[in-house]
Amino acid sequence: SFQDCPRYSKALVLLTVSGGGFLAYSGAKSFFGPDSSLQDDRKRVIVLGTGWAGTTFLKNLDSTQYDVKVISPRNYFAFTPLLPSVTVGTVEARSIVEPIRNIIKKKLGNVGFLEAECYEIDAKNKKVHCRSTQKTGLEGKEEFIVDYDYLVVATGARANTFNTPGVEEHTHFLKEIEDAQNIRRNVIDCFERANLPNLSDEERKNNLHFVVVGGGPTGVEFAAELHDFLEEDLSRLYPQVKDFVKITLVEAADHILNMFDKRITAFAEEKFQRDGIDVKLGSMVVKVNDKAISTKERSTGLVQHIPYGMVVWSTGIGTRPFITNFMKKIGQGNRRVLATDEWLRVEGEDCDGIYALGDCATINQRKVMDDIAAIFKKADKDNSGTLTVKKLQEVMEDICERYPQVKLYLKNKRMKNIVALLEESKGDDNKESKEFDIERVKTALSAVDSQMKNLPPTAQVAAQQGQYLAKCFNRMKECDQNPEGPLRIRDEGRHRFHPFRYRHLGQFAPLGGEQTAAQLPGDLVSIGHSSQWLWYSVYASKQVSWRNRLLVISDWGKRFVHGRDSSRL
Ligand code: FAD
């Protein structure tokens, strides 16, 4: 445990399959094997996943202290924020991936990689069961088991279809590099089909109807990229059919980009309207077949069948099946997402030494609410049950700093109770000394519980968690050797490691036409061309290697000079 070193001294397993055995199922010996454990006392860490969380953990881990194995079906890291750009060729797929072995090569100590997927976690016996994703050549030797001391589970999430019939079969997801490449090919397919001589105008129109389901950042960015591609490149190359093209964005809620500031939401909706992108708000997709998508209007119940050429499904994420099975085994069967505490330790039976981070897990909000209650308790020093406005404001600032979602909800006035309480004091001459009943504030804040939900499933959260966990791991040995610990953590009840705290660094929503909306720290909102340049600089600087940085910048340059490549490769 991060709270007490002796528990930490147990094995560390990263949800990468490291360690254990490259056993053929028959019981071959472990990867970490008895020999290596005799040679030194380094703990075996298995990291499952080579995405944002797993890779950031790996990059920041002092690998000389552990025996590390990374297990993932993907032998590369992918810079997902640029995936929508790959769908239309603004950047090339290979420019945004970095081979995981390039990263491992730079690590000191014993670090290895196995290209396989974990299909079962045996927490009781500290083993992960894995299967190679190679299609041929292994003849019955695909499966193996790896032992761990510490397991880091960073396997991300899968696209969520909400069990809508026909979605798996007929729509495109946008989660992986392959998805983006398939979409790119399919867009061109639609144009080449629509351009064939024997089609009626109606058929051309249907083939060139692009439907995007989901008005979150990914759906909106894809719709914007597609619109730019059509306007800037395809309309020149397919002049005969350009007037048949239509993009529809379907969103079940009342607005797109719900998690952004209201000004950004409004700007995006207006811009899409100007661009001719049909935004269907308050519409749920109820069925998809090979020719049409069926939507139901929430307010009227009206069902419409809309013919399409291509549908991209981007409605959020769901839990991977092997994680759901694992949750059942450890007593989390009644939850939807794997829960951890604020030290990213998985809660449940036999979960000692198992950590989960990124999109595959969530920090248990019960703890967050306890934390908020503790902040109020601390503020109410004299136990009077009341707080002055000034103190209340300080407390709210503290809470907002720790939990940026609260800040956003307050700002958007979605937490009406609290906003009303804070505004009650406005214009009041005695506002400094006016007192509020803490219980009243807490009742209002309990709305946070249902509204705040979890940390957003973003690369920013995953990367910060990976960095945090690596720092804790790097200090574990020091803690073991010095159980008394530094002064700061000797007191009873204090934690040896700080709990994970998310720092929101802002968020972008590219809207096409070289315009981006940016919600920056300090609640600054910037929309337009200048934010687009900020977006270019941030995303260039965030690339994981200089190779990626140069490739991405050169792709942007090529696109400015020559336009995007419309070959169907
Ligand atoms: P992932 O990055 O998904 O990595 C999961 C890893 O686990 C992968 O390597 C996968 O192969 C591996 N894996 C899967 N199953 C197994 C298994 N059974 N065993 C072992 N390994 C397994 N976030 C932002 O902050 N800003 C953005 O602009 C942004 N844009 C996005 C655009 C798109 C199109 C998408 C899809 C996402 C975007 N995100 C963005 C979200 C961000 O990509 C995710 O939040 C982030 O990838 C989560 O990181 P992760 O490490 O948890 O999961």
How are the SSEs ordered, and which strands pair?
Blueprint: H1 5-8, E1 20-21, E2 30-31, H2 33-39, E3 43-48, H3 52-60, E4 66-72, E5 76-78, H4 83-86, E6 97-99, H5 100-105, E7 110-122, E8 127-132, E9 143-147, E10 150-153, E11 158-159, H6 167-170, E12 172-173, H7 177-194, H8 201-207, E13 209-213, H9 217-237, E14 246-251, H10 262-275, E15 278-281, E16 283-288, E17 292-297, E18 303-307, E19 310-313, E20 317-318, H11 321-329, E21 338-340, E22 354-356, E23 361-363, H12 365-379, E24 386-388, H13 389-402, H14 404-411, H15 416-424, E25 435-437, H16 438-452, H17 459-481, E26 507-512, E27 515-520, E28 524-528, H18 529-541, H19 546-562
Parallel strand pairs: 3-4, 3-10, 4-7, 10-22, 12-19, 13-14, 13-19, 14-15, 21-23
Antiparallel strand pairs: 1-2, 5-6, 7-8, 8-9, 11-20, 16-17, 17-18, 24-25, 26-27, 27-28
Helix pairs in contact: 3-17, 7-8, 12-13, 12-16, 13-14, 15-16
Flavin-adenine dinucleotide (FAD) binds at residues 48-54, 71-74, 80-81, 83-84, 117-118, 154-156, 174-175, 218, 320, 322, 358-360, 457-460, 462.
